[in-house]
Amino acid sequence: MLYYSGPDGTVDGRYNPNGSLLNIAAIANEEGNVIGMMPHPERAAFRLTS
């Protein structure tokens, strides 16, 4: 899992922009081939891929 954290790496709700449970930013399955991520990275790459 990836977590929202501060500049020093401390997981803290102050750095959680969407209020996700336990400050979780991304989660993957055990095989590591499926990931769910928030915020959605495709928004940042849309101009590069269109």
Instruction: Characterize the overall form.
Output: globular
What string, H for helix and E for strand, traces the elements in order? EEEH
Counting H and I runs of at least 4 residues, what is the number of helices? Answer: 1
Radius of gyration: 13 Å
Which key terms come to mind for this protein?
50 residues, alpha+beta, 3-stranded antiparallel β-sheet, 16% helix
Describe the structure.
By secondary structure, the chain is of the alpha+beta class. It has one domain (2-49). 16% of the residues lie in helices and 20% in strands. The chain has 1 helix and 3 strands. A 3-stranded antiparallel β-sheet has the order 1-2-3, with no helix packed on it. It is globular, with a radius of gyration of 13 Å. The mean pLDDT is 84.
What's the topology here?
Layout (H helix, E strand, L loop, with lengths): L1 E2 L20 E5 L6 E3 L4 H8 L1
Antiparallel strand pairs: 1-2, 2-3
Structure in a nutshell:
With 50 residues, the chain is of the alpha+beta class.
